[in-house]
Amino acid sequence: MGQRLFICGVFLGFSLVLQFLKTGFQIVGEDQNGVYTGYNVSAWRTENKLLLIPVFTFSDNLAKQLSRKVRVLCWVMTAPQYLKTRTQHVRATWAQHCNAVLYMSSETSDFPTVGLNVSEGRDQLYWKTIRALQYIHTHHLHTADWFLKADDDTFVVMENLRRFLCRQDTEQPVYFGHRFRVFIKQGYMSGGAGYVLSREALRRFIQGFSSGRCTHTSSVEDLALGQCMETMGVKAGDSRDEEQREAFNPFRPDQHLLNPGTKKPTFEYSYYPKIRGPGCCSDFAISFHYIRPEQMYELQYYTYHLHPFGYKYRFNPADTLNYNVNKPGCPKDFFFP
Amino acid sequence: MLSEGSSFLKGMVLGGVFCLILSLLGTFSPGITSQTEQHLHHHLKPLSKEELQKLSENQMSEVTQQVQVYCVIMVTPKILVYWATANDTWSKHCDRSVFYSSESAKALEAVDLQEQDEWARLRKALLHAYENAGGLRWFFIARPTTFAIIENLKYLVLVKDPSEPFYIGHVQKSGELEYVEYESGIVLSYEALKRLVGMFKDESKCPERAHALWKVSEEKQLATCLKYSGVFAENGEDAQGKELFNKKTVGMLISDSMVQNPNDVVEACCSDMAITFSGMNPSQMQVMMYGVYRLRPYGHNFHDSLTFLPPKGSDND
Predict the structure, then answer these.
(1) A101: which residues sit within 8 A by CB, 6+ positions away?
(2) Per the database record, which ranges form the Fringe-like glycosyltransferase domain (chain A) (predicted)?
(3) How far is it, in rounded angstroms, from Cα A43 to Cα A30?
(4) Contacts of A13 in chain B (CB under 8 A)
């Protein structure tokens, strides 16, 4: 009997150590809500169980300064069937750079998602937007300074959004995105490319609905929102960079950078002169659309990781002579030697 | 009861110790297979940041100016668009880039080697490069679908002496022969190329036409000739041991990483200072120009200790 136990012990000890060696000291972080921590994020804090606040360390002072000064709440339009196929990759990539994130869906879940009182489907999209903005207005009006909407196939570079927003005033009625010129006099912002509302814009949108001046006019959510914005006196802003290149992009990088890139009719909707090829997009691009999961990680790699060592970038706004936009407290652009 | 328990424990301890000893002996390593592979060939890494900072400003500018790359890019007229794309994208960052073709064609600006055999063509191209090197001391050989980030190549070889023989890339092994994979790009120092050209004259060791019944790939023939002249393959990697030379596209590597490392896709995938990706089509190359040389997050700074200026007369970088 003792002999058998001994042999059992040998096998057990052997396989335990074998397992230990195999896993190689890998530790996968998991917080109370079962949310996996990703690269560069040490944890997700949750407030009210639905709002995710990334807790992450910056190595760069300027980006850190900006994230404290320009707080952006990201809300991602998604649906239950896309959580595993799309939204989890949003959560693993660019959403980690937001000050706070809300995932808007028809159902509450442990993802976590906010369950809005709507059903899914293209004809429900504007209802979803309305309910989402009502939710944000009710619970998070002062959680952030700006409110960014994105789809679960939008890729956003938050640092570049903050660079732009730093010079804007959130108490002004204004919203930004990729501006279309059709259907509405002042134009409206493409939903897929993402749009960002100032606090005053959000207030006015809610006022519009509570006063009846804005109603559910159409299920084309970006167009319908644009109509309400115009009705309520919220200005459609210009988010192009110092070289007049677009920052919010309604298509994939290849569709903008190649000529011809895409034949989609909405490509011709742009308010500003449309450029195909390298002049299409700002170096400090804020968003791209129609991004599949693999591409999310690819863009993450290009944006935050892959680096041409020592390369002096051509576009350095601070070097230009007519650079004079300098809001007090906003960090001035300067080229790091 | 107690004695039975203690014999079980003794067994456990013995089993665990036995496993540890076996893995330490190296003939049996359960989870660290990659390490045993690495010990087969040499690793070549760039200077660390600390080492770089030790250089004075004068030394830094001297070294930056001296590391100049002659790009040997192999093309064929059948895929003219690849020549056009390489010409319009990454090759602009070479100090000199020369295209070598199997035959001439309209609109194709390349050295016509008039040679269909791949190995013979490579030999001729390298001979031409050697004879036309001017003052350039580093040579990078690319295939049509390869995209190279020349700045990172320069960083890799920054303080290495090109009058020493260097033969760098992604190293593979075939039997006893270690060779640099052609598809992911080959780097040769001037001395390595010089020795190679000398070895070309030796028809027995380094024949121009293979006499064997089976065809040996050009990458292996190259490795053999170099080996005879005392030049050995070295694997280019970064400080963390990540590959710098890749025969796959970024997309393919990301897809692999999504399967193998779903919780850390980008970190596990590819090096921050990767030099090559391959198997790329022209559209992917144009997008990569933007991704590498333009797209970046405001406020993140790399504090690189040296500077490479953008090429003149270019608008996509």
Answers:
(1) A51, A52, A53, A54, A73, A74, A75, A76, A91, A95
(2) 72-236
(3) 8
(4) 11-19
Which residue of B lies nearest to A305 if distances are taken between CA atoms? Answer: B272
Q: Is residue A182 part of a domain?
A: yes
Span B236-280, pLDDT tens digits: 999 999 999 999 999 999 999 999 999 999 999 999 999 999 999
What pLDDT, on the 0 to 100 scale, is given for residue B28?
A: 45
Are A207 and A232 in contact, with CB atoms under 8 Å apart? yes
- Cross-chain Cβ contact B8/A5 below 8 Å: yes
Residue A77, beta-bridge partner list: A104, A151
Tell whether A253 is covered by a domain. yes
Q: What CATH number should be reported for the domain holding residue A80?
A: 3.90.550
Q: Which residue of A has its CA nearest to B13?
A: A13
Question: What does each C-alpha distance from A124 to A105, A128, A185, A190, A209 come to in angstroms?
Answer: 11, 6, 25, 17, 17
Let me know if residue A3 belongs to a domain. Answer: no
Q: Quote the tokens at residue A176.
A: 């930004």
B31–A281 CB contact, under 8 Å: no
Q: Which residues of chain A have pLDDT under 50?
A: 23-42, 320-325, 334-337
pTM attached to this predicted model = 0.84
| Among B residues 283-302, those touching chain A with beta carbons less than 8 Å apart | 283-284, 286-302
Q: Domains for chain B: give ranges and CATH numbers.
A: 44-294 (3.90.550.50)
Q: With 0-12 CB in 10 A as exposed, 13-18 as middle and 19+ as buried, what is B230?
A: exposed
Q: Which of A274, A290, A270 is nearest to A177 (CA)?
A: A270
Domain count, chain A: 1
Question: Strands (DSSP E) along A125-234, which ranges?
Answer: 146-151, 155-156, 174-176, 179-180, 188-189, 195-198
Q: What is the ipTM of this complex?
A: 0.85
Question: Which residues from chain A sit within 8 angstroms of residue B20, using beta carbons?
Answer: 17
The Cβ of residue A122 has, within 10 Å, a number of other Cβ atoms equal to 9
Nearest CA distance, B148 vs chain A (angstrom): 10
Domain residue limits at A153: 56-305
CA distance A132 to A150: 12
Domain presence at residue A13? no
Q: Which of B14, B178, B258 is nearest to A89 (CA)?
A: B258
